[in-house]
Specification:
The protein has helices at about 5-15, 20, 40-65, 80-110, 125-130, 140-149. With about 150 residues, it is mostly helical. The protein is elongated and about 60 Å long. The structure holds zinc ion. The site of zinc ion (ZN) has 8 residues, from helix 6.
Length: about 150
């Protein structure tokens, strides 16, 4: 027989509630800064973007130099010359598009929403950003966009 234990039980139940719950600290707001999860990697990712940008710039400058507009004597009428210019135009197109994505990504770092899918606002996985730092879409949106093509 333990009269002390029996007596303590109802007292604990009658304790005023509320104080214990209030000490729990909740994170401020349900939405944190979307970019915060990337904070430790942001410097690296930004560096990659800047590197990519200068690479694309060099590429575009190089393509402009071999545009074909300057060589209008021999190569313009040959298939090889035409093919080379077509390839150069395609590469330039891709480089320009990549440049636009890179600029957009750099701007979104400044704005604080880098790594956010432009279509559904989901987090783009870090693993993706480490390979394609200028990625604008999450994997599922990328997939549905390529399905449309
Ligand atoms: Zn998405």
């Amino acid at each position: 027989m333990k009269p002390d234990a029996d007596a303590a039980a109802p007292a604990a139940v009658l304790m005023p509630r509320g104080h214990a719950a209030e000490t729990q600290t909740q994170p401020t707001g349900p939405h944190r800064h979307p970019q915060d999860r990337l904070a430790p990697h942001l410097r690296t990712l930004r560096g990659m973007l800047l590197e990519q940008r200068s690479f694309r710039l060099e590429q575009l400058v190089g393509l402009r130099a071999t545009d074909g507009r300057t060589v209008d004597t021999d190569s313009t009428d040959t298939d090889a010359g035409r093919a080379r210019r077509e390839v150069a135009a395609l590469v330039a197109d891709g480089a320009r598009r990549a440049m636009a994505d890179i600029e957009l990504a750099l701007a979104s770092i400044v704005a604080g929403h880098y790594g956010c899918c432009h279509a559904c606002h989901a987090d783009i996985p870090l693993a993706v950003l480490e390979v394609i730092p200028q990625a604008r879409l999450c994997l599922s949106c990328q997939r549905s966009e390529s399905d449309l093509r």
